[in-house]
């Protein structure tokens, strides 16, 4: 085992805190053994993340309080968590990378934001006819798409892509819309239409400020 402890993130309801894994926890994580559960969306975007329940299943729960943990276990096929989680909740949980690299609170918050965006788009993907919905989902759940979400600015400023569905202005055939409250700021997001802006508002409102 490495000399320094492996760092993960403890989720207790809506509270995030960094936590050192015990030697036993790190060993079972590295072997993908024991009670560690894979985090499907994180894995799809290139993060080798797993979740460990710290207090075992519960007989009562509040999904609003357990959103971060429940979304971490949501399937990429339909956005649903495993049946045992739907019935009994998660309780306090530890999330860590099975490659034993450190996992931080900041990274967990970025991933939770991406979980939220994935769930907001899941019903649209499932309602799409033919293979269009599945193709859109596959394009969204990639390391490249997540990297764009993590790093919205670049040498040329904000990429000209919708902050919700990642459609570019070239694909749309017209300029993207921008949030009126924070237009002019480097971090101001772009949207392809009002519906995508509405879906992103619960997250964007936390940082949106008038110039």
Molecular shape: globular
What is the share of helical residues?
25-40%
Structural class: alpha+beta
Strand order of the largest sheet: 2-1-5-4-3
> Any idea what the radius of gyration is?
18 Å
The biggest sheet amounts to: 5 strands, antiparallel
Average pLDDT number: 81
Approximately how much beta-strand content do the residues carry?
Answer: 5-15%
Q: How many DSSP E strands? A: 7
Tally the helices: what do you get? 9
Q: Which segments are poorly predicted (pLDDT under 50) over 5 or more consecutive residues?
A: 59-63, 152-158
Q: What gap, in angstroms, lies between the N and C termini?
A: 50 Å
**What is the chain-wise order of helices and strands?**
EEHEHEHHEHHHHEEH
How would you sum up this structure, described in words?
- 38% of the residues lie in helices and 13% in strands.
- It has 9 helices and 7 strands, in the order ββαβαβααβααααββα.
- The strands form 2 sheets. The chain has a 5-stranded antiparallel beta sheet with strand order 2-1-5-4-3.
- The longest helix has 23 residues, at 105-127.
- The chain starts with 6 loop residues before the first strand and ends in a 7-residue tail after the last helix.
- The model is unreliable at 59-63 and 152-158 (pLDDT under 50).
